[in-house]
TrEMBL record:
Lineage of source species: Eukaryota, Viridiplantae, Streptophyta, Embryophyta, Tracheophyta
GO biological process: lipid metabolic process
Cofactor(s) the protein needs: heme
Binding-site positions, heme: C458
Family affiliation: Belongs to the cytochrome P450 family.
Transmembrane segments: 7-24
GO molecular function, one term: monooxygenase activity
Pfam families in UniProt: p450
The name this protein goes by in its record: Cytochrome P450
Keywords, ordered alphabetically: Heme, Iron, Membrane, Metal-binding, Monooxygenase, Oxidoreductase, Transmembrane, Transmembrane helix
PANTHER family to which the protein is assigned, alphabetical: CYTOCHROME P450 (PTHR24296)
Amino acid sequence: MDMLLCFVEIFSILCCCIIYYYHLQTKKASASEPTEWPVLGHLFGMFANIHRFHDWATDILAGGWHNFEARAGLTGIRFFITCDPSNVRHIFTSNFANYPKGDEYAEIFDVLGNGIFNADGESWRSQRAKAQMLMAGARFRAFAARSSRDKAEKSLLPLLAHAADTGARCDLHDLFLRLTFDVTCTLVFGVDTGCLSAGLPVIPFARAMDDVLETLFLRHIIPMSCWKLMYRLEVGTERKMAVARRTIDRFVAETIAKRRADMIRQGTSNSDDLLSSFISHDDDDTSNGNDVVDETDEFLRDTTVNLLLAGRDTTGAALSWFFYILSKNPRVEQKLLEELAPIAAQKGGDGGGMVIFDASELKNLVYLQAALSECLRLYPSVPFEHKAVAADDVLPSGHEMKAGDKVLVFSYSMGRMEGVWGKDCTEFLPERWITSEGKLRYEPSYKFFSFNAGPRTCLGKELAFVQLKTVAAAVMWNFAVEVVPGHAVEPKLSIILHMKNGLAVTVKRRATMASC
């Protein structure tokens, strides 16, 4: 009994000390500076603000001149959080070799295998060169533009027309993700999964990708030893990850096997998808031994899953935020319609019929490009990037980096910094991207970080803009989109800037736009 009382007294004193320490820290800290707790470090603040993680990081960076050093308590891990353009240029360009993705990144993103997102050094250079060669070809680019146009015309517009005619609400975020999933699967695998078909069926492969993204986000803030134990035990979110991986691996393996069989039966492949191109390219360089084929299949699995993740979710998320922000800025929407009107008129689109635009017709539209860029500045599809520090270094901001430190670059926060974009940084102003001569204004990638920067700049940037323009123009010209009043729009816990509650909208067919 005496020992129990002694324990209670010690525990009470310890609690009082922690509370007193917290009181002192909060008195010293500013409103934007998180408290560093004993044992937990800054992890407590991260978990306490997990529901508003991106805005929490933005508040901290705004109060810390775009930089903040965080510590993960007893783990000894140091995180340097930044949205400083000078630091971004140093990390991603000037001293690129010293800031690899790193082993920890590869472990967090283990579902991507040895693909281009996880790779460093020579492996990364080789994969990037091969992917760039295949994606840069005129044939593939035409295939990508045609696939986006066809999916918008034959699947998305009819679904929206039905919603308009029946007065039904629809989740535009879900529709865009389904569209980009179908298009990306077509481009990568040569397979249309039918995710956007009538009835909006549940596609196990698509659901698995959603579960993967949610788990990958949590792995960034849960200590590695904890989530690895959860994965081994298959509990919590890691249980969903284990099931999702099996679903993804099964789909990809079956698709690769079918494509190989088709190519053997036909003797060649007339398909323009990337999987067929990779198989043809590898078959030119390797023998037909079973061991080599097994190794190649692993490479194909990793490569295609990486490309699918890059293409599907980022573009679908960008389209969702674009129509959300357009609904709050009718002035911008009207200017976009006026820009589209001459093209639509040439296509006979002023008589009330449905209009779909070709990529070549939208290529030189300055205001459309500016509006999409402005949306991506405020709502980048990938809100933060993760880097490791290979050797001690000093950043342009004066902060000292130690080998083994982790760096998080917040593109979401960068777009909201007055010191980077001016006092109107939180406003949606496509005009900031247009010069006085009416031409597009160039912004360096270390400032407009939505497509990464330096040697790792996104290979699919131009393809992404083609898809964004094609779908956005088709939807906004044919339909007036209104967000349902009272619908809460906020980011989801994911490494991609998805919408937590979707985007509930009503749509109406537009009247003739001849007046534009």
